[in-house]
Amino acid sequence: MARARDALIAGSDVSQPAPLQPAMDRLRADAEHYRDLGPWSVTDKTKTPPSGDKRDYYSVGPYWWPNPKTKDGLPYIRRDGETNPDRNTDAFDTRAMGDFSKAVEALTLSGFFDRRMDDSSRAAELIRHWFITPGTRMNPNLTFAQSIPGRTDGRGIGIIDTYRLVPVVESARLLERSGALSPTDMTALRQWFGQYALWMATSENGREERMAENNHGIYFDAQLAQFASFAGDESVLPIVMKGVVDTRIRNQIDRKGRMPRELKRTRSFHYTAFTLRGLIDLAELSRCEGPDLYAPAKGRHGGLTDALEFQASYIGRLDNWPYEHRRPIDTDLLFDNLCRSAGRTPTLDDALSQLRAEHLDDRVMLLTNGCEPSP
To answer: Are 87 and 60 in contact (CB under 8 A)?
Structure first.
């Protein structure tokens, strides 16, 4: 990121693998959009969770809809791949958390790349309002996440909702370095994520999600490792990484690089790329502590690289994707994954080169210095 900033300041992309200005222009537009929005808080929702405390996060399962066969619509029924629009209304916290995360990331990166201290300060203000201010802070649990009216008040599967907080954690590290978040702020923030990581590891919902054998298990690991590490607990990361190698990859990627559980979904291409993003998050964390998740797989299964190459092999021939996908296929997530995996294999780099021209304004261009391979 520092090298990308230096290139932008110099006004030249000569030394860059690809031009960075389109991504910078889009970042500036995003920061402008969020500059005067918010602050957001879980206390803003119009519905109250079963606890009676609006500081508890509350959401409804995305693919659950009112039952047309009953007068009150209960119990809700599942329609995989079709998102109930009620989930993203002011009644629940899903949209607010998403907007909060996007705003913090855009303003933090604007502060970094354009050295706009006002944007950094605004991002810090948003973080304090969501996590620290007593009257508006979110309680560190997801007990009532992805509820299903008429069936359950909350589920372990809902823990994936807080993946939206990963960019906030990453932003906080930059805001700490800039001085926008004070040592007192950072202590309170780390305490919050420490409490949340403990809830993830010990609650019934957390234990349920940890046992998931699809993308949910991977995203549980990615969050727990990130949040516990941010909180200062160095014991969690190596334990998580061992499980990723011994269980997640072994059970979810076959010898041809396919992810059978994701290929059964009605949006199979999307969920394949989505699941791989969680594994790439873990691969980046494993550079701090753990094995190389890109290393060739051993035994009767494939690995992360195999899975990336399997999906990348369809670039240029998306119409040949042989699995169900009810919505038009887009390559945004796949491009991000390839950018973050640049330099790993010629096959992946070839697919990346085919996609780059249509994704030059993607933010990952700034975060990876034009998709330059990681040192």
So the answer is: yes
CA–centroid distance for 166 within its chain = 6
Domain boundaries, the chain: 2-44+101-139+156-367
Tokens of residue 64, six digits = 């659950």
Gyration radius from the chain CA atoms? 21
For residue 97, what are its two tokens? Answer: 């958390």
How many angstroms separate the CA atoms of 368 and 168, rounded?
18
Is pTM beyond 0.70? Reply is: yes
Per-residue pLDDT tens digits for 304-349: 999 999 999 999 999 999 999 988 999 999 999 999 999 999 999 9
Q: What pLDDT was estimated at residue 343?
A: 95
C-alpha 121/C-alpha 307 separation (Å) is 40
CATH topology of domain 2-44+101-139+156-367: Glycosyltransferase (1.50.10)
- In three-state form (DSSP H/G/I as H, E/B as E, the rest C), the secondary structure along the chain is CHHHHHHHHHCCCCCCCCCCHHHHHHHHHHHHHHCCCCCCCHHHCCCCCCCCCCCCCEEECCCEECCCCCCCCCCCEECCCCCCHHHHCCCCCHHHHHHHHHHHHHHHHHHHHCCCHHHHHHHHHHHHHHHHCCCCCCCCCCCEEEEECCCECCCHHHHHHHHHHHHHHHHHHHHHHHCCCCHHHHHHHHHHHHHHHHHHHHCHHHHHHHCCCCHHHHHHHHHHHHHHHHHCCCCHHHHHHHHHHHHHHHHHCCCCCCCHHHHCCCEHHHHHHHHHHHHHHHHHHHCCCCCCCCCCCCCCCCCHHHHHHHHHCCCCCHHHCCCCECCCCCCHHHHHHHHHCCCCCHHHHHHHHHHHHHHCCCCHHHHCCCCCCCC
CB-CB contact of 85 with 73 (8 Å) = no
Average pLDDT over residues 210-227: 97
Rounded-to-integer distance, Cα 139 and Cα 267, Å: 33
